[in-house]
Amino acid sequence: MGFNVTILGSSSAKPTATRHPSAQVVNVHEQHYLVDAGEGTQRQMARTGINPLKLRAVFISHLHGDHVFGLFPLLSTLGLYGRRTPLPIYAPAPFGEMLACHLRYFDSDLPYEAEWHEVRTTEHALLFENRTLEVWSVPLRHRIPTAGFLFREKEPPLNVDKFKIAKYGLSIAQIAAAKRGEEVTLDTGEVLPNAELTYAPYRPRAYAYLSDTAYSAKAAELVRGADLLYHEATYAAAERKVARQRGHSTTEEAAKAALRAEAGRLIIGHYSSRYKDECVLVEEARQLFPETYPAVEGSTFTIEKQRPETENR
Predict the structure, then answer these.
(1) Number of domains the chain contains
(2) Can you give the pLDDT at residue 309?
(3) pTM of the full predicted structure?
(4) Confidence of residue 36 (pLDDT cuts 50, 70, 90)
(5) Do residues 7 and 27 both lie within one domain?
(6) Do residues 183 and 171 both lie within one domain?
C-alpha cells in the first residue's frame, strides 16, 4: 500500500508567479489528507489530478492566511461536488469562529458537515487514527500558536512464513492465531513462540510536517526516525537574524533539524519571495544534510516499503 506526499504550494506569505502558498496532500493507503491550505489549493489539486472528494481530513498548522485562505473555497466546491460524508478539520483555535462565519455567510446549506477539532499547539497529542494510520500534533515555535503533524503508519499485520507452515503442517486456525500474534500449540503438544512463525512484512513508515517554525530541537526529537521530513526553510543561512525575528528557519536550521531527527530525507519549502531560484537554498542545506530536496510544486515524494532490519523468523 502506498505512502506519498504531493506538494501543492511552496511559497511563504507572498505568492509568486510560479509558487503558491503552503499546501500538501498526504496519501496513505489511498486515503488522502490535506495539510495546510494556502490560496489556490483547490486549483493545485486539479492540476495534480487529486480528487478533492477523496479527502479524509484536513490538518491546518496555524491561522496565518498563507496556510488557510484556500480552505474556504474548497469547502464550497466540495458542496457543489455533492460530498455527503463529514469532513474533519484539525486546526488551532479560534478556527471555529472563522469556520462559523464562513458557513453563515457563504455555505449555510452545505450537504455535509465540516467538523472542527481543536489542535492544542503546546501538546504532542494523538489527533486522528484509523486502522492504518496515526496523526500526532508537534508543538512548533512561531509568532502565533502553531503545530506540525506526524503521520505514522501503524504496524502492519504479521505474515506467516510459508516454509514454517509446511514444516509444522499448520492448520488454517493455527495460521490465523499466528497472524494475531499468538503462540501456536501443535498436535504433538509442542508450543511454538510466535517469533518462530511470523515476520513483519515491512517497517511502519512516517512523514513529518514542520512548518512554520524557528529551529526546535524538541520538535525534531518528537519526529525522530521519520522517513521523510518537511521543514520550512524560508531564508538562506545569512538571514538567520531575520528568520529568528519572524519565527522562521534558515536552510542550515532545517538541515540541523533533519540531522537531529535522524530523518531519511528532507524536503525544504516555504521559500521567501526574494529567492527566485530555490536551488541555492537546497545546496546550502545539502552541505549539512545531503539528502535534501526542494518542495517543487506538483512533485510527489514516495516513501517506499522497507523490510525490518531484524525479522521474526
Answers:
(1) 2
(2) 63
(3) 0.91
(4) very high
(5) yes
(6) yes
SS3 label, residue 268? strand
Question: 176, 198, 220 — which closes off a domain?
Answer: 198
Lowest-confidence pick of 5-19, 48-62, 297-311 = 297-311
Domain contains 308: no
117 and 219 fall within a common domain:
yes
Give the Cα separation of 222 and 136 in Å (integer). Answer: 10
Host domain of residue 214: 3-156+202-302
Alpha helices in 154-238 (DSSP H): 162-168, 172-179, 194-197, 217-222
Measured CA to CA, the distance from residue 138 to residue 120 in angstroms comes to: 9
Note if 36 is an active site residue: no
Angle among Cα 148, 154, 160 to the nearest 5 degrees reads 160
Alpha helix ranges (H) inside the chain: 41-47, 71-81, 95-105, 162-168, 172-179, 194-197, 217-222, 240-246, 251-261, 279-286
pLDDT above 90 covers a percentage of the chain that reads 80
Backbone angles phi, psi at 142, to 5 degrees: -135, -175
Same-domain pairing of 70 and 164: no
| Residues 253 and 146 grouped into a single domain | yes
Average pLDDT on 252-263 reads 98
Which residue is catalytic, options 66, 161, 212, 227? 66
Provide DSSP, 104-169.
HHT-TT-SS-EEEEE--TT---EEEE-SSEEEEEEE--SSS--EEEEEEEPPPPPEEPHHHHHHHT
Q: Which of 198, 225, 250 is the last residue of a domain?
A: 198
> Same domain for 45 and 190?
no
How confident is the model over 217-227, as pLDDT tens digits?
999 999 999 99
